[in-house]
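Hypothesis: this fold can be encoded by more than one sequence.
Test: take the structure tokens below, design a sequence, compare later.
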């Protein structure tokens, strides 16, 4: 070894001895060792870092508890697996587990399934759900609620221990406060509404109406009931409610087992009832604000006799000779009796109508025979033709005559 190399080795050894004796050598060495060890662990374990270009910031919410964290996980499922977060089949995860995590501020919501007690008046319904919204839970189990009904969580009362044991652990109670449907007649205009007021006065205050500004029916302290009608009008007017009768309708049916001129009641029926709300002005005039039928009228059914009695004697012989069916003798007899009292030459001095059926003019009957002025058979032949041409039958002609007293 040359003298030059030997001199260099001596100088390097002296330098190492000075470095080894420096007080910062040990801390620096430990720091470097830990740094390289952490770097190796990071690479091998797939840990996350905000500085890496492929990392994403995720906002994770579990039952409303929020946290933000960086991750290199590619999907929602992968992230939750890395965090040891288990998801059951009854839990709700938004978005789905297979959704890819893209971009920063990616949001994931996890709603744990829980046992819920729904209290709807006297009804109690137990449900297992992950729906976070009280109204959503209620609709999920098939309970219909109106937009004006109040549906909210309640923790003010202890949950029934016996019921909780029987139905399972109850972690939440949902209370449904039903609104009351009403008809509000406000100065003559009807409004269908729903309210949580208990009395008429509370309803008016809810609507910004004071008792000094209006006359009210029913009384202000009246407890509100479903479908009740509340009337508000000018304070100078009075509101009264009266019960009135509704006339009973009648229906007539033909009965060919009852003689004509007789009738029988088949169904009694009954009158109806209605409650009418009147607005009474200072001058006493009344106007109807509303009316409610409290009892529908029931129709009375009356059977009218349609069976003709037997006509005998000369009249029957004349009708038979004129070719009139015996089944129509009764109708013919009544009409002729009423028109002329069976007077062949009977004449109406006012109109000039003539004969048994009071033809106008009487000469019309010449079409049945030239002896029409004095022959009852000839006159009845013409009368028979007239009845059938105009009314279709003597029976129909009789119905018309009964209603109008002429034919």
């Amino acid at each position: 070894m040359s003298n030059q190399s030997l001199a260099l080795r001596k100088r390097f050894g002296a330098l190492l001895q000075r470095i080894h004796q420096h007080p910062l050598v040990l801390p620096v060495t430990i720091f470097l060792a830990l740094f390289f060890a952490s770097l190796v662990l990071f690479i091998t374990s797939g840990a996350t870092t905000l500085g890496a270009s492929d990392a994403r910031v995720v906002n994770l919410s579990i039952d409303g508890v929020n946290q933000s964290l960086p991750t290199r996980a590619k999907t929602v499922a992968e992230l939750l697996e890395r965090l040891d977060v288990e998801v059951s089949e009854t839990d709700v995860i938004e978005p789905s587990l297979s959704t890819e995590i893209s971009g920063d501020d990616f949001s994931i919501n996890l709603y744990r399934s829980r046992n819920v007690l729904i209290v709807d008046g006297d009804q109690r319904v137990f449900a297992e759900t992950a729906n976070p919204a009280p109204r959503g839970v209620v609709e999920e189990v098939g309970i219909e609620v109106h937009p004006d009904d109040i549906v909210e969580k309640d923790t003010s009362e202890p949950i029934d221990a016996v019921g909780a044991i029987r139905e399972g652990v109850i972690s939440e109670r949902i209370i449904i406060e039903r609104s009351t449907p009403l008809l509000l007649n406000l100065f003559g205009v009807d409004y269908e509404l729903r309210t949580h007021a208990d009395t008429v006065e509370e309803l008016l205050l809810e609507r910004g109406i004071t008792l000094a500004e209006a006359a009210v029916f029913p009384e202000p302290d009246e407890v509100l009931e479903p479908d009740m009608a509340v009337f508000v009008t000018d304070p100078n007017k009075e509101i009264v409610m009266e019960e009135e009768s509704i006339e009973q309708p009648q229906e007539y049916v033909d009965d060919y087992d009852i003689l004509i001129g007789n009738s029988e009641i088949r169904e009694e029926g009954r009158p109806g009832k209605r409650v009418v709300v009147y607005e009474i002005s200072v001058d006493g005039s009344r106007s109807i604000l509303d009316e409610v039928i409290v009892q529908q009228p029931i129709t009375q059914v009356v059977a009218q006799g349609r069976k003709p009695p037997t006509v005998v004697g000369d009249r029957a012989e004349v009708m038979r000779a004129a070719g009139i069916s015996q089944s129509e003798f009764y109708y013919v007899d009544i009409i002729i009796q009423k028109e002329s009292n069976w007077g062949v030459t009977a004449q109406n001095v006012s109109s000039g109508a003539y004969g048994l059926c009071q033809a106008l003019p009487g000469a019309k009957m010449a079409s049945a025979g030239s002896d029409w002025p004095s022959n009852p058979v000839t006159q009845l032949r013409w009368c028979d033709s007239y009845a059938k041409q105009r009314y279709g039958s003597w029976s129909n002609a009789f119905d018309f005559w009964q209603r109008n007293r002429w034919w």
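The chain is about 30% helix and 30% strand. The radius of gyration is 51 Å.
Hypothesis status: open.
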